Amino acid sequence: MSRFIAFDVETPNRANNRISAIGITITDGQRIIDEYYSLVDPKTHFDRFNTILTGISSKSVQGAPDFVQLWEKIEPIMSSGVLVAHNALFDLRVLHHCLKDHGISWKSKAEYICTVQAGRKLLPGISHKLNDMCDHYGIELDHHQAASDSRACAQILMRYIGQGADADSFIELYDLEKGAKVKKQKSVSK
């Protein structure tokens, strides 16, 4: 049985290179096993847009762990399965920047599933925005709240699996050192 680590990050400003909150939902593909949420002090400024969108401000994160302190807590969780995110390249890029800018060495590449990309293959012709997918499946969502968004992402993945999708067929590879998706090698037939 696989272990999936659905995660969602909120960012403090348009640079999208720091985290102000993270939600993590762990699933075995059939049920939610555990959840984690934390505000994060990004040690940078907040744009008004991001504060309005997420409700998180510099005042909200006072006393919250910074990324280095957070990583000590979540690294074992993040290392325990396939990463999953809705629009995964965004969340993975933010994670890449945080690791790189804080001099944290984790692993060079990470397996991940993007529930947007999987959904486009499984359910073509509909909107795959997180709120639209939650409406489609009747999943409760408090959008742009990291804990709710990560839980919704995990539930969407579980719906896909419950409808017969092979989650392993959607696994991609992300280069955490370069901050980019690893392109699949085309197989050469002989």
Notes on the structure:
With 190 residues, the protein is of the alpha/beta class. The protein has a single domain, classed as Nucleotidyltransferase, domain 5 (2-Layer Sandwich). It has six helices and seven strands. The chain has a seven-stranded mixed beta sheet with strand order 3-2-1-4-5-6-7, with helices on both faces. A hairpin with a 4-residue loop joins strand 6 and strand 7. Helix 4 packs parallel to helix 6 and helix 5 packs across helix 6. The model has no long low-confidence stretch (mean pLDDT 95).
Features of the shown structure:
alpha/beta, seven-stranded mixed sheet, Nucleotidyltransferase, domain 5, 190 residues
Produce the secondary structure layout.
Layout: E1 4-10, E2 21-27, E3 32-39, H1 48-54, H2 67-78, E4 82-85, H3 88-101, E5 109-114, H4 115-122, H5 130-137, H6 146-162, E6 172-175, E7 180-181
Number of separate strands? 7
Q: What fold name stands as the CATH topology?
A: Nucleotidyltransferase, domain 5
| CATH top-level class | Alpha Beta
The mean pLDDT is: 95
What's the architecture, going by CATH? Answer: 2-Layer Sandwich
